[in-house]
């Protein structure tokens, strides 16, 4: 049997502590499967004294992650610190410079510096694995980087934030408001005290930026993502969606179009009888549409100490099983030097169906006016429904008009909505939700 | 750049022809991604003259697969012949003996000789990849063999036969009989002229046997699988299932129990609001439940020339990216020599919920008698419904009793059903369908 693979783990939060425990408990099985033992050669975390439920006293401890990366007697540097800058960034660079393999769960770091780090890993002939950075335990990085080799991806999309999906699911199942569900998510530990990063879509955007690069072979462009969170989704939207045969999910979508690549994160209506519509609660799902394989959907836990640790361990095992020397698996699917420039498709050019909910004064002629504004912008309607306004807070004498369009452009919809905003009958802000249709299931 | 990887392809049906086309069309991209070119070095098929839509005249042709395996100037032998014995078996053995890597899509071969072939590949230090053998384009082999390293799997199950899922979906959506849907499937090319192998569950069983070994590290035991096909599923069962909140799917299930491993293929009721229940038509799905990762579900195309070729190409690409020399990825997840004996759990010990549909004479006391037979066998009922028999062919004066049990054992259910068969009020055969509940979603 080959020499043991020595890993150094930086960051001992929930994931790190889980990883240490698993590597120890499963030492024998891992040695059999990987053809060599996996040993923990070094640890680093801010607070050495904290009780993490595992005895760490016999492992070499480093006060800083960078010191561990530079000095420890290890083969693999595992980064579980988090954050795009500072300790995580410095330590990962130091480890790669030294010729260590790196495993990281850090989506922010990759979304910001992924291309540079990939280039460095490739120059040094080491592996940089990051399965845990996107959709936790779901092996979507491996699918894109390995299984889909030779395929041309046309679209990748998914539910990649458990907090948002939990809130939307609760709203639908129990008819509760966004605020009530957010509080419940916070109480259960599914949402942070400051939930902005999750509910406004930033977390999904980081993950999407990484998937886009793997799917399309372009430079990472995390700052070029159209972003819309779920905080203005009301129970009225969810109910109207259900009536029309849809569910609302926060999706991250990257799609190839004639004018470039669309990257967008927004509340999305998906047809209720599709598989992804059935993904509820904190569960994540990622779909990949490609020209040879067709459609592939993977569903699983997007977070949690154990699920994330499992993904990290899979990455470590891949390193244990591989031969030393120059590596041929490009970090980002395409060698960093061969990544194409990212050409952004204008959001205004986005094509698809739209759901539009308007609260309007209950007067004669309003329905006809709304329909005219749509027609003037060449928007063809799948359905238009008028109903008494169910909103208790709505002005008396108001009613709701719900439109579902056939495929049209974002530009047309924005123009139509702007025109309607100029009408005196409109009460409050129009709600616009994009519709996304899975290709095969 | 390293030398080109030369592949020899044996078998040029739909998958083989698709593979040849893709390797040629995507030559440049493949070379970039894999760090070396992939070239077709040799071909072999029964009929050289057949038009396969691709020009094959410049490739060295072998009259027999075994001759190609033995003599061709290639690094990888790709077996797309099919069948557990004969040409495929001989050629794969010859290729491994010679020290060639092997990629195969042949589930029958692996279900029968997988352990021997894995041992041979490991002895020779070559890779034996077979992603396409189970659930076509879904990367379930890679997930079990690589991503889940370190996990203990508790259950793996899935919809792995597109023909059956197509028929069951059509029956449900259109209220058609099994025979009508089968004919439609045959007309569309989703079912063979002789569909027995698919509809009686044998095809699913081959795939399940392979998954069981990967999931539990035991010897392949394809002959130890409990088998029940879908040919006796009636529209009444499907409608009753729908009324009760279930859908009927043909599942292959491998599950660890205290007394051993259950392997079973049978029509199964799954709760309608689970993700797998939404998988319709020819689409496949495989779920893996494990202790660290949790639940993972993958959905995608289970067959088709391109989807299968994509999986084969992924396997070839993995070989292209790996270093030469002794390989550390065990073919079956666990090294062949370390596989544990397969200990079969008795089907009679299976625990779960059951759906039982009885056609009975419309007399006083029958309902009470049925309920008593259940109670005598310690079967606790979730629901018991009596309704007028909707079956036109049923004897006049008959009615239907539908029972759904709480978790009980197969033995108890069989005993209860045997007791009821002894009663004079029973009309025709009782229908018994097992219920399977996904753990997380």
TrEMBL record, chains A, B:
State which pathway it belongs to.
Amino-acid biosynthesis; L-methionine biosynthesis via de novo pathway; L-homoserine from L-aspartate: step 3/3; Amino-acid biosynthesis; L-threonine biosynthesis; L-threonine from L-aspartate: step 3/5
Pfam families from the entry? ACT, Homoserine_dh, NAD_binding_3
Indicate yes or no for the key word Cell cycle. no
Q: Among its keywords, does the record have DNA damage?
A: no
Domain annotation ACT: ranges: 355-435
User: Can you tell me which family this protein belongs to?
Assistant: Belongs to the homoserine dehydrogenase family.
This chain's protein is named Homoserine dehydrogenase
Q: Which organism is it from?
A: Pseudorhizobium tarimense
Taxonomic path: Bacteria, Pseudomonadati, Pseudomonadota, Alphaproteobacteria, Hyphomicrobiales
